[in-house]
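**Backbone geometry record:**
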Amino acid sequence: MDKEIKKEDKKEVKKTLIIGGDGFIGRRLVEQLKVTGKSFLATSRRKKNSKKNYFDLLKTKRVPSWGNYDVVFICAGMTSYDKCEAQKTLSRKINVIGIKRLILSLKKTKAFVIYYSSSCVYNGNRKYHKETDKLEPRSEYSRQKVTIEKYIKENLKEYAIIRVGKVVNEAFPILSKWHEEIYEKRPITAYNDFTLSPILCDELVKISLQIANERINGVFNVSARTQVSYYTVAKAFCQKMNYKNVPIEKLQASEDLALKNIAKRHSVLSTAHLRKKLGVKSMSAKEVINKILHLYKTKYLEKI
């Protein structure tokens, strides 16, 4: 997303609640709100770090009364495809039962709720799914997302559901995995039939805060305007890091029990609705990957 978010003439968020403030997206929301000086509370499931703000979707049976908030971001949950597939009962307790309990408590407030869903709620048989397309989830994780989307629509009046592609930053875990494989003189392994349409985490946060500031109801697709395979990203990684003659082993996600239902699918979404409502233009997948590879190289490798 390469268009600056305009700040003038926008309603300011007075108090913000972030469920899962120590998660991947939650941490960046916290950082941005600190910079802007906004009033917020971020929950944590780590008791030793945050006794006052402790909240665990699995263990907390009664949702605490934190006070009245204008905006609530739901960032907590089990987000791993393979873990949700392998631990269906546990993941549903967290991603469905726990979040339903939370939403029910938010129903009593006037808070604007932002929920992060996934591009995998679509079947992925074609490129550029629109927000109005039929939802056909093919994994346990995406089925749970669809369940909560429906529950939000039935129980809340003011909300935004953000269906995102792969959210990335310079700490993209697979980059460290590849670096380790090279260090141990093993071939890099990457899926050739599994694509991503990445969005920079900082850009997602900017978009989310703009939606919150303007309280724009509805469903939004957020992804790059193109898609790439993990194998293509691996080749770009080797080129950027100047790793010559490093073998890259092609893996097939369709042969992985945890990923076979979402392999060979298109991950790129239509972001026309986002562009119309917010004036935000999507970056290409190549542009996003180049950015995170540059950041990874400068922030991590130069310290070694």
